Records
---
Amino acid sequence: MCGISGIMYKNSRHQGLAPVGNDLVRMLDSLAHRGHDSTGYTIVGENNDGQLILRIWTGESEHPDVILARAQEAVEQVGCVVNSRQAWGGFLRLNLNYEGEIPELAEAILQTEGVVIHSIGEASEVIKDVGTASDMEPRHQVGSLKGTHGIGHVRMATESKVDITHSHPFWAYPFTDVTVVHNGQLTNYHKLKRHYEDVGGYRFLTDNDSELIAVYLADKLAQGDSLTDALRYSLEELDGTFTYLVSTKDGIGVAKDRWAAKPLVTMETDDVVAVASEEIALRSVFTDQELDRAEPQENEVLTWSV
Amino acid sequence: MVSLDAHSLSARELNQAIKKAALTGSQITILNPQARHNIAVGILDSCKIDIDGSVGYYAASLMDGPEVNIDGNAGWALGENLMSGKIVLTKDAGASVAASMRGGDIVVGGNAGARAGISMKGGTLLIGGNAGFLTGFMMQKGRIVVCGDVGDAVGDSMYEGVIYVGGDIGSLGADAKIIEPSETDLIELWGLLEQSGINDRPRFRKIVSQKKLYHFDNLERLEMSAV
């Protein structure tokens, strides 16, 4: 079992960024009973005037500051100009100007021993840690982040180990702004992973099955498929149980497997769309008694864009 | 008349308070359920419970006797293993509504998710709207009435019992078949709809088991050589 949620403010590109972080913290906190192992978010803000947001973590190192400094050096060596830097407890967030290719930047960072990339995005950033939403909030202050949309996840691990690296959301390396949260298990993970490694030349950063969904979708989008089509193809090509959410720079999407094995409810008004594993999460943000929610059924795909 | 505010009570405290009030046959109102799980579970005395809002998973489950009205939506497994009594939900139910119910009535005013009436062993499940994938999966007894459409694989591997569908049928499940309802069936159904305040009188189709899965029809290799 895991819990997922997402929210998008439809008019926020025109009307100003919305309290996406605060909403997701409340939603994930109300879903804590679906998974205590770890919690994670993707928050998508405005386009950053062409700057990139990089989020990395130093693993379990005893000297995180040294590793973070080396990582920053690596970033600067490939031509990045660091505009702002925030570091805390082994985590690092950099705002960068970068003219080069993303794979080159990502590879340079990964050459630094002990560094894990959580995300590279033009507008998106991934924040994840072990424990519940309440546990991680004092360290990361996700509640203060504004954005146009975002997704989140609480994890009860089934497929791979409990640590920050294997927490959701998973960023699709080496693309920008495609991240996924997933409730379920993929049974053809190893087969598809080999395919994407051998034929696609992709590299996976974890051995978690959900990372595959992010790479799968990013690959389809890179080939020119629409998000809706990419999600539809996944219903056929991914085997197992899944209800997953994907976040891109422009919106969010949902896909639910052929067995309708994992829950999801959706709520939509003129201004906002919210989705979550359970209605309890929608009600943690929207207190209206008359709240109208729908439950997507098997093989259903939904997308919304800002 | 007892009024309980779910907001200030844990699920266990709330259910203990309901049980206490139910002993005297009281009318119980539950306020602020906020779609939380396990509300009104394990109530074994006759009483009337009104829930003012949506409930989460397993609401009104493991129940024997009460009459429960829920003004809102329900999460997964509403009324699981109901023995007797009645549950009326005004809006939509999540997946597995009435799972393994053995008696009594469950009425869903809106739509139901996947696996409605899974492994039902008695009683009546009435759904005013549509029902999802695998409705009546492995049902063993009882009656499911869906006024709207059903998804794919309706009645898959059902042993006994009947499913009536007023709207479109996505597809039949393994070993299920459609037969014409009798006049008596329809009179009973219309009576049920009238009691439940449903005005439509759809042209119901009746789904029952072909009972071909009761016995293996393929012989093992060793058995074949013996024939």
Note: Chain B has a mean pLDDT of 95.
---
Amino acid sequence: MATTEEIRIGLAEIVNEVTGIPASDIQLEKSFTDDLDVDSISMLEVVTAAEDKFSISIPDAEVKTLKTVGDAVSFIENASAA
Amino acid sequence: MSRRRVVVTGLGTTSPVGGDVPTTWQALISGTSGVRYLEGDWAEQPVRIAGTAAVEPTEVLDRVVARRLDRSAQLAMVAAIEAWADAGLSDGAVDPERLGVAIASGIGGVTTLLDQHDILKERGPRRLSPLAVPMLMANAPAANVGLLVGARAGVHTPVSACASGNEGIALALDQIRLGRADVMVAGGTEAAIHALPMAAFAQMMALSKTASENTDDPTAPSRVSRPWDTGRDGFVLGEGAGVLVLEELGHAQARGARIYAELLGAGITNDSHHIAQPDPEGRGGTRAIQRALDDSGLAPGDIAHINAHATSTPAGDVAESLMINTVFGKYVDELVVTSTKSMTGHLLGGAGALESIATVLAIHHRVAPPTINLDSVDPGVNLDVPATARELRSGDIAALNNSFGFGGANVAVAFGSLA
């Protein structure tokens, strides 16, 4: 079972790969759109890659609720535990 | 009102013989082939040679930019970045509302389409890239170049198979002449070196299978593309892009731009004969060449050089010789005719653009590239086709670039030294 920090680091690697944003900037409190400037298609790329990496499913309806890095990390944490 | 004149002020390419214009031009003048064996899992394929890009576009482009682009758009971006810098048009030197793009592609994002299809079959729809559509769409190279330069006057993607690149240049000429733009970033790109398109061309008997059976001799691929030679047996697929910055003459002069040549005119016709075979008498191509001369206000004696379409197919090369002889008559002996495809292979939608760059540079440097692998000229070919680079005459000269494509498309464009 991955820790919250391990999930954040794994997600940060994906966001870096997709957008080029330094992984160190991708912290729990950051908003994907307002702070990190991740556009909607890039967000879908992140979701697709995260589903693959963490072996989870993120329903389309959930994607728009993932406002911050912390939201996404929590979702992944809960989905992994389920 | 006199017609607006159009000049070439920037050039960019990435091709099988070089990752930029200086390297590509040096290779073409020295007769260097970019055709090589394909690496990896090609053993079961009927054709295992191609003119792959000399420099991987992912080595040049920003990583995040590159991963959002199909290879055809990556190549176009590399060429456009070079052309745009070469023209010196950054820093607001052109009004975005007066700046357009015409970047052609014959096939579009075919490798993305096929790779995503593999993912769909193997891993399901949830693993497809959300970028699949904007990567594979035919206008993706033009649209990305438009974003690069900030073009707002119209971003176009002409599609006419192997004539596409020249059609992009012809369309750009019209846009400037009609007053819709002052600067057009024009050209073509292609990246179709993938098992499916290559096997499909092979099924048409269009590709040479020579050198694909016995892969022991590493130099063998370089001898396969042999336009006008009696031993020719089909074309070699190449990949790459060419981009020209075309600019209204007064706009270029006002900013003191370096002018390579003038884009004098273009001729576009269709054979209306067969979907994939050329008119055996070359009538459509003949009319395109004649129209390019008429549009340019040129007489046959004004032309010093032709960069021919000549792909190394048995029928096409002879038909083009017939076209040129029909139009030029007694003046044919004054023409230096070249097929740079002997070195680059056939770039499909990128061909007309790369070869227009070669034509412009031939005028600019007064030297025509050779046709390599020409050991024994087909007796049906009555043209002066030198096997080494040939100096062009002094004084005002003009040159033509021919491109013909499936669907019966014929596009000839004429460039000249600036009078």
Note: Helices of chain A lie at 4-19, 40-54, 60-63, 69-81.
